[in-house]
């Protein structure tokens, strides 16, 4: 259970750390929901780091992310990086719940 989450986390966390602030800067004006995505990601990232090898308690963040992103639905007027962030977050969410 944790192994899958750790695998996905190790694969995507550093990329998300780079992409999320950039996408927020580029698209935050026209997509204010992404500013909320950034806040949630920052909170999750902090908890993931603090948890170390334990399972982080990020259920609430994932619930809020699913709500604010309409289950990771990418707006049609955004870039590939925006889409990549949602795809990575969705995979992380799925692995967390597995």
Topology of helices and strands:
Elements: H1 2-27, H2 33-51, H3 59-68, H4 80-97
Helix pairs in contact: 1-2, 1-4, 2-3
Number of beta-strand segments: 0
Shape: globular
Structural class: mainly alpha
Question: Which series of helices and strands comes N to C?
Answer: HHHH
The percent range for strand residues is under 5%
Mean pLDDT: 95
Portion in helices = over 70%
- N- to C-terminal distance: 6 Å
List unreliable stretches of 5+ residues.
Answer: none
Main pleated sheet = none
What is the number of independent domains?
A: 1
Radius of gyration: 13 Å
Tally of individual helices: 4
What are the salient characteristics of this protein?
98 residues, mainly alpha, globular
Summarize the structure.
This protein has four helices and no strands. The protein has 98 residues and is mainly α.
Describe this protein's structure:
With 98 residues, the chain is mostly helical. It has one domain (2-97). The protein has 4 helices and no strands. The chain has helices at residues 2-27, 33-51, 59-68, 80-97. The N and C termini lie close together (6 Å).
């Amino acid at each position: 259970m944790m192994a899958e989450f750790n695998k996905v986390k190790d694969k995507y966390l550093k990329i998300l750390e780079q992409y999320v602030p950039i996408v927020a800067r580029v698209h935050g004006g026209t997509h204010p929901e992404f500013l909320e995505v950034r806040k949630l990601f920052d909170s999750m990232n902090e908890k993931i780091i603090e948890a170390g090898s334990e399972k982080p308690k990020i259920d609430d963040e994932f619930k809020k992310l699913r709500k604010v992103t309409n289950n990771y639905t990418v707006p049609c007027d955004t870039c590939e990086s925006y889409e990549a962030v949602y795809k990575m977050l969705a995979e992380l969410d799925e692995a967390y719940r597995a």
